[in-house]
Structure to design on (427 residues):
């Protein structure tokens, strides 16, 4: 067997495999024997068709089958011997047979050869969040809103009130449009943007008033129209008093006192923002490494991440993209993100290789013990068996390896903590 490897680019190679008759003839004979047992040709008994006739009828198909098998076999052998790291499946580009020689040409993508720049001088800022008493009370109020009661008010509508009204839609000439009347429509002003026409028109109004809302056309060619909104009720959310009985109810007996409930809310906030702090730091680290190491990225790897991002988006949207969203345009929009994922994977793999990082069974067992401590209902032995199973092992291995890679990086760079208040959201 002879081989010729040609670098087409930093991420592409071509491989020419040249096999002698001694190397490919046994496979040809094997395929002919298989065909002879099954082929039926008029005038010949099954299993007794002459070899020359089989070659005439099935020669091209047999040659193609043999080529595929030998290409796969020798590609694996050559990749291992030459330390080739394929980033895609090898594609059969061409082949040619004669009596003495079979020439196979394969093309494939490879992991690029590169060096990670020295990162010991890199510096990062990590946000450190401190949960205040005000943060806890704000979060409790958000929880209480889910158990509040809408009560009618006689005064003017405020920014967080709900208005119940009847609507009539009219054309630009003031004619009421048929089948465009809606009764008891609820406007929750809290969730309408401040510049929304209905928010602007309804704020400060009372039950019994009627207001006109003009809607301007959003696109050229569309017509303007108007809504007549007859306000029937203004309602305001009244929060329940936080006491021990309410705590038992909303936590389903998990907590029996307001103090315990507040402590749990604080703990959950601290855990959430501690995780956010860590994830933001890791994101800034990967972004920095991607910027500093413009690694040539195999398109096959980018395609793989693009497909993953597309499927994730579909799952979040109920299984499919909305009819109004063109999949090809969506792919274009997520392609840069897919390229970043692929580049970071190459960089992180290189760091793992340079530091000889690996994941052992003991690492997986330690990870299972750590996860079990977070939830008393989980048993360590059960988690260990799950994580070591064929179904979960690769995922857990990748997770642990990622932690080790970031651990190596964080031990080599400078990380400065910066105190930050919790980001506030509307109550």
């Amino acid at each position: 067997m002879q081989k010729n490897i040609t670098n087409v680019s930093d991420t592409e190679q071509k491989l020419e495999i040249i096999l002698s008759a001694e190397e490919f003839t046994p496979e040809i004979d094997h395929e002919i024997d298989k065909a002879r047992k099954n082929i039926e040709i008029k005038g010949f008994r099954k299993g007794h068709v002459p070899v020359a006739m089989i070659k005439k009828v099935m020669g091209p198909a047999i040659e193609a089958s043999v080529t595929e098998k030998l290409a796969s076999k020798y590609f694996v052998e050559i990749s291992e011997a030459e330390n080739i790291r394929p980033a895609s499946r090898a594609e059969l580009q061409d082949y040619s047979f004669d009596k003495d020689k079979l020439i196979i040409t394969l093309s494939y993508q490879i992991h690029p050869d590169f060096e990670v720049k020295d990162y010991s001088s890199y510096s990062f800022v990590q946000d450190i969040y401190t949960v205040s008493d005000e943060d806890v009370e704000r979060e409790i109020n958000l929880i209480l809103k889910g158990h509040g009661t809408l009560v009618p008010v006689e005064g003017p509508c405020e920014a967080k009130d709900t208005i119940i009204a009847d609507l009539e839609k009219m054309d630009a000439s003031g004619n009421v449009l048929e089948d465009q009347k809606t009764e008891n429509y609820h406007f929750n002003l809290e969730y309408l943007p401040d510049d929304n026409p209905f928010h602007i028109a309804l704020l400060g109004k009372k039950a019994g008033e009627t207001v006109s809302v003009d809607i301007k056309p959003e696109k050229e060619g569309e017509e303007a129209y108007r809504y007549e909104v007859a306000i029937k009720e203004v309602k305001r959310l009244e929060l329940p008093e936080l006491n021990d009985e309410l705590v038992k109810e909303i936590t389903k007996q998990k907590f029996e006192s307001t103090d315990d409930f507040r402590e749990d809310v604080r703990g959950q906030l601290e855990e959430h923002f501690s995780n956010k702090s860590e994830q933001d730091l890791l994101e800034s680290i990967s972004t920095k490494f991607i910027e500093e190491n413009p690694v040539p990225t195999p398109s096959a790897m980018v395609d793989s991440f693009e497909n993953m991002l597309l499927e994730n988006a579909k799952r979040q949207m109920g299984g499919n993209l909305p009819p109004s969203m063109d999949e090809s345009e969506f792919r274009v929009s997520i392609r840069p993100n897919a390229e970043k994922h692929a580049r970071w994977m190459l960089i992180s793999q290189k760091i793992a290789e340079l530091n000889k990082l690996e994941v052992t069974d003991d690492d997986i067992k330690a990870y299972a013990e750590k996860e079990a401590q977070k939830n008393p209902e989980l048993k360590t032995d059960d988690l260990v068996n799950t994580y070591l199973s064929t179904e979960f092992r690769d995922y857990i291995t990748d997770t642990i390896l990622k932690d080790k890679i970031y651990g190596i990086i964080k031990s080599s760079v400078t990380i400065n903590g910066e105190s930050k208040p919790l980001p506030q959201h509307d109550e």
Residues 21 and 249 are 82 Å apart (CA to CA). The chain has a mean pLDDT of 91.
